[in-house]
């Protein structure tokens, strides 16, 4: 069904969407953008999460209320202590040990009872019952909730279609791939069935198709729940990866809608700066500093919400940035988390040495806004999908420094398929194993950091081609979200799909 076929009568009978995100910053942020985008299309939106996560997005909640957007932010009690998790650990990045990720994911189904209890409360504002449930694909338990309400359940995929399709192939051919990487002298093998020559390692095979029985069981539960979904929303755009969208649609035999980049949702600067949580820096000071820099001269270095580098690696990274001679903004979350002894003292001293040319942000940075400033010309990134999309939309080239999970495949997409980035040259490892890692471990030496920054910001003719490609992708991303663009149509088709389902439901006189 195209966006022209069915016109949603949202002004007289607004559709009500129920959104259930995964409690992890990289998953929460685009879901919040989706909620506001749906509300801007005259839909009613209930966004359900836990108290800690709701408090983190308080600026967004307050802005939505001030602008009269029809969004409800609902608290669901998440009894983490009852399942052996520490009090307050309601998001992946708050877990004290990455060994707790699987218990955390298994505990997500505990949200079902408080959600159903909320849905049973008579609506004091006269909102209709939800017409559609959109949940993160990790929230597998929402299958039963949608069925009990007799409404469509759409799953939201945070990563790219490229990654989703690679995951599908790796899971399908796991045995052969395990044998191939074991036999290969360099530990890599080609992933067959793709239009681009993509190499994968044992790391990708184990991560996306784990041999650990508990992890494997959980992933199978996720995939099974996905089969019951009525459709799939992807935070990407058709022009970025057309082949992967088409093949994934054929594989699933169900609607797959591109609706991104969601980071392009139009909003006030102060609110955009608080995507995910409040900024750790005074934005006036930040932008005064950026305004003093030359166009395209600044390098942004940021590794997301859960990556934690060793003290030795922090030193090498800082000294490499200093030696590069380029102005930079470096987001150092390790100082705030207190997981790296000595980090605060070293960063404070380093900050004094580079105060005219470098800016240190301790904690959470308004990354999307920084990338959108004309002074920023390059981005050293951990290759989380949100970060990649934010850079792509702003036409900023990337130096890829993946750490975990899907980030290594995201690197291949940026460097080998999109050709808008340069690889730092990281070998797969488990950066999340904080308890057992060697604190003296260094993956990238200062000389390599300096070389990568120079290649990123200069790079001769090849560097100029990357920048040209990045600018083209940025134009395509923005066009996709504008009225009539591929992602604009994708969201319209989602709304029309739900509207048509509701119409048929009402005509059949099905009572709840």
UniProtKB/TrEMBL annotation:
Keyword terms of this UniProt record: Transferase
Record keyword Transcription regulation present: no
InterPro entries for this protein: UDP_glucos_trans
Protein name from the UniProt record: Uncharacterized protein
Highest classification ranks of the organism: Eukaryota, Viridiplantae, Streptophyta, Embryophyta, Tracheophyta
Top-level division of the source organism's lineage: Eukaryota
Molecular function GO terms recorded: UDP-glucosyltransferase activity
Protein family (similarity comment): Belongs to the UDP-glycosyltransferase family.
SUPFAM superfamilies the record matches: UDP-Glycosyltransferase/glycogen phosphorylase (SSF53756)
Signal peptide: none
